[in-house]
Prior knowledge:
- The protein has 195 residues and is mainly alpha-helical.
- The chain is built from nine helices and no strands.
- The radius of gyration is 21 Å and the shape is globular.
- The N and C termini lie far apart (89 Å).
Amino acid sequence: MTYALIPIQRVAAPAPDDEFLVMRALSGDHWAEEALYRRHVGDVLCLARRMLRNDADAEDVVQDVFVSAFDELEDLQNADRFGAWVRRMTVNRVYKRMRRQRLRRLLGLDRTFEACAPLASQASERAGQEARADLRIIDRALDRLGAAERIAWILRRLHGHSLGEVADLVGCSLATAKRRIARADGVVKTLMEGP
């Protein structure tokens, strides 16, 4: 009697969802914390970079956000909303940092501050001169906006969040989010159209 060997196929197990990882992290599993970090760090860093327009400050915010998130994990109401929770923490930390930077500039304590132009500098090498020029104009428009308008505009126009998500992330009403984005759109449009 002969037996045929049947090849074994490996099937990848589905990645655990945030709710499962949060529960495991709460029970002390460090691999679950690392999995949550790896899953969300890219989005949080991108969000912080675009809002702060400075890589070093953005990396500081990301570190603060995740340290706080894991310290306060038991306070998370819905374990499946971990991603939204850390994005909200990021927005709050960015607001705080922007207010502190503005105060330091007003008091003359931060003479080394220079606004970066990350949109223009992050353009792909395949982007044409016209696209780079448009990004520089948008950078100038963002410089003219207050923190609230800049953050709402970036969340909506660059990160593609819905109006409801923007309102949720920045902690304002839907109408306020719409006003902030509309004001920012107006500034961008005015500069794009030129004199």
